[in-house]
Specification:
Distance between the termini: 31 Å
Number of helices: 5
Order of helices and strands: HHHHH
Shape: elongated
Helix content: over 70%
Structural class: mainly alpha
Length: 121
């Protein structure tokens, strides 16, 4: 229910942008479509990173980078402390999950607005 309310809120924001900005209908449709496509692209990238699909690829580059420029011991200890902090790790995961949902809602509502605008045009 909360996600549906956020979805409708973004649609109302787009309607408010149209009313307040004085854009032509075509410009408004184009801008909402562009924001929607960019938001859905961000959503897709975040979902791919969260799934761990590219983790092996990035791990290889991290190994190559550590051979080229090794980390100081203090930085390694700091990285270990950050990885051991379970509250911080859970906060990062929860925030990333909220950002994924937000990017999807912004993208889908913007695309829905642009499609409705095209129907009215």
């Amino acid at each position: 229910m909360k996600k549906a309310m956020v979805f409708l809120l973004f649609i109302l924001i787009w309607i408010g942008v149209k009313a307040a900005s004085g854009l032509s209908l075509v410009d408004w449709i184009n801008q909402s479509f562009l924001v929607g496509i960019i938001s859905l692209l961000v959503w897709a990238i975040m979902v791919i990173f969260q799934s761990g699909f590219l983790s092996l690829f990035f791990k290889g580059f991290r190994i190559i980078g550590s051979m080229a420029a090794p980390k100081p011991r203090a930085m390694e200890r700091t990285d270990q402390l950050v990885e051991a902090d379970h509250r911080f790790q859970s906060f990062k995961k929860a925030m990333a999950a909220k950002l994924v949902v937000l990017a999807f809602l912004i993208g889908s509502s913007s695309i829905a607005v642009s499609i409705c605008g095209l129907i009215l045009y």
